[in-house]
Amino acid sequence: MKKVIYVLVAVVATMIVACGGGDGQSRKDKILAKSVKDPYENWQDYKGVGPIQDLILPETIDEAMVAKGLEIFESKCTACHKAEKKFIGPAPKGILTRRNPEWIMNMILVPEQMVKEDAIAKKLLVDYNGSPMANQNLTEEEARAVLEYFRTL
User: Fold this and answer.
1) Burial of 153 by CB count in 10 Å (0-12 exposed, 13-18 middle, 19+ buried)?
2) Alpha carbons 130 and 112: distance in angstroms, whole number
């Protein structure tokens, strides 16, 4: 009788180990992991959350707006951002090849909301050691000037 119990226990244990998948992830978790897209790969799909949902940039650069944007950037942003290299936050150089203009504007205007609700902003928060972007309370006009400056980098 004891021998039968030992055999049954061994069979059940073998089945549990064999059915477990070996990596601790359930089949459902594996399917979900495959279905969640990396927001950095599909950045064109993200306009962010906030007041800016449609923004078309003109082909020509507005030099007066660039000057104003540079002034704002230097006075409010350089504690965490360097124009051409990673610092506490990401470098804005080439940002328009990685993010939509709407996303950039929303991140400038409502960074707290973006970090709570936008997939890219959440990922950036993790990638930059949990350093959230400070809300500088810029107006839409000021944020647009900063974006125009970014276009020149």
Assistant:
1) middle
2) 13
CB atoms within 10 A of CB 37: 10
The string of pLDDT tens digits covering residues 110-129 is 999 999 999 899 999 998 88
- CATH number of the CATH domain containing 134: 1.10.760.10
Domain membership flag for residue 12 = no
Let me know if residue 14 belongs to a domain: no
Asked whether the beta carbons of 75 and 129 are under 8 A apart, the reply is no
Quote the pTM value.
0.73
First to last CA, the chain: 80
Q: Which domain covers residue 103, as residue numbers?
A: 26-151
- Name the domain count of the chain: 1
pLDDT tens, position by position, 34-67: 444 666 777 787 899 999 999 999 999 999 999 9
- Distances, alpha carbon 2 to alpha carbons 9, 14, 74, 102, in Å: 11, 18, 80, 71
The answer to whether residue 79 sits within a structural domain is yes
